[in-house]
Each structure stands twice: as structure tokens, then as C-alpha cells.
Amino acid sequence: MKASTPQDKNLEHLARKRAGAKIGWYIHATVFIAVNLMLLALSALSGRHWAVYPAFGWGIGLAVHGAVVFLVAGGAGLHERLVQRERKRLSLQRDPW
């Protein structure tokens, strides 16, 4: 078995952190959809169309969250696949020092 180096540990930590951030965004998006569907139903039952306002405001927040996670920071299911993908990306990067 290969000995773990400090660089390997740093890559593992960073890969897990990035994968966790992406999972956080997926959870945020799921809650956004569920809550706004409920608000849309309540809005329709009341005969007014007020649900667009919270959806728009929250949608801006979700978009910013997604931009930070996917653009700036650039499992056994989804979580594990994301960890492995980040680990591979990080191991391919050249150390400038």
C-alpha cells in the first residue's frame, strides 16, 4: 500500500470540501423547487400571483450560490463521484513551486 504524503492529504481534503460544496448547492436547489412549488400552489388558491416575488429573490441567491460553487471554486453515489472527480482534477494540476 502506498504511503500517504502531505500533498495527498491536502488534495483529499480539498476534493472533499469541493464535493461537499456541490452537494450543498444541490440540496439548496431541491429545497428551492419544493418550497416554491408550495408557494405557487398557495398563490393559485388565493387567486393572486404573489409567488413570483419570493421565487425571483431566492432564485438570485441560488444563482449566486451556484456561480460560486461551480465557477469560482471551480457520492457511493453522487458525493463519492464528485470527490473522485475533484481528486483527479487536483492531481493533474502542476505545482508551481
Give a description of the structure.
- The chain is mainly alpha-helical and 97 residues long.
- The chain has one domain (14-92).
- Helices cover 79% and strands 0% of the residues.
- The protein has three helices and no strands.
- The longest helix is centred in the N-terminal third of the chain and has 41 residues, at 6-46.
Largest beta-sheet characterization: none
Uncertain residue segments: none
Measured on Cα atoms, how large is the radius of gyration?
19 Å
Strand content: under 5%
Task: Give me the secondary-structure topology.
Layout: H1 6-46, H2 52-72, H3 78-92
Helix pairs in contact: 1-2, 1-3
Question: What key phrases describe this protein's structure?
Answer:
single chain, 97 residues, mainly alpha, 3 helices
Short description:
The protein is built from three helices and no strands. By secondary structure, it is mainly alpha-helical. α1 (6-46) packs antiparallel against α2.
